[in-house]
Amino acid sequence: MYKILIVDDEIKIREVIREYAEFNGYSVEEAADGMEAIGLCKLNDYDLIILDVMMPKLDGFSTCKELRKFKDTPVIMLSARGEEYDKLFGFELGIDDYVVKPFSPKELMARINAVLSRKTIIQPTTQDVMVFEGLTINIPARTVTVDGEKIELTPKEYDLLFYLAQNCNIALSRDKLLSDIWGYDFFGDDRTIDTHIKNLRNNLGPYRDFIVTLRGVGYKFEI
């Protein structure tokens, strides 16, 4: 049984989500603010976190940033703010989906089901560790080093880099990257890919140019 943590300062919203989630067979725990959520996540493992943005003590963005220091748990963010900037900022922090309030509980369940059923498709490879000049990619260990220094990436940034590297010198469309990494049922759009590529390049520093933009198509890892 999947275990979900609902983090929202509005008790009525938590109650509605709990009712629908339990009806769909999920185990549910609740937190009223970001600080409480972080404490629970240090003690327990969850399969998914539903995280509100506007909360007392610690807002959703700050909470997500703290959680990403020690957990790779998928996050669906809830917010009354539907501006593109807020959505992109959330994806930069490593969230998996963004739902704008007011929302349909049935749609939220569909998004929860999509995130939980999504599995990253990584092409088989005989190389567990790949070295490109000073860039080392260790897939089993999920580590990346740049000139000997380990860099920290979000879960989706790791998946994206691994996929690009394993398909080295192959042109990959945005649609293919979305379907193979985020899943066919992902609710986002091409800007999600572009945002993650931008962040990934920034983290790769001197080796950012390994990721080549194919105008009108997508991207490829080129050596």
UniProtKB/TrEMBL annotation:
SMART domains, sorted: REC, Trans_reg_C
Protein name: Stage 0 sporulation protein A homolog
An example molecular function term from Gene Ontology annotations: transcription cis-regulatory region binding
Pfam families per UniProt: Response_reg, Trans_reg_C
Source organism, top-level taxon: Bacteria
Modified residues (4-aspartylphosphate): D52
Source organism of this protein record: Clostridium aminobutyricum
Positions of the Response regulatory domain: 3-116
DNA-binding region listed in the record: 127-223
Biological role stated in the UniProt entry: May play the central regulatory role in sporulation. It may be an element of the effector pathway responsible for the activation of sporulation genes in response to nutritional stress. Spo0A may act in concert with spo0H (a sigma factor) to control the expression of some genes that are critical to the sporulation process.
CDD domains hit by this protein: REC_OmpR, trans_reg_C
Keywords: DNA-binding, Phosphoprotein, Transcription, Transcription regulation, Two-component regulatory system
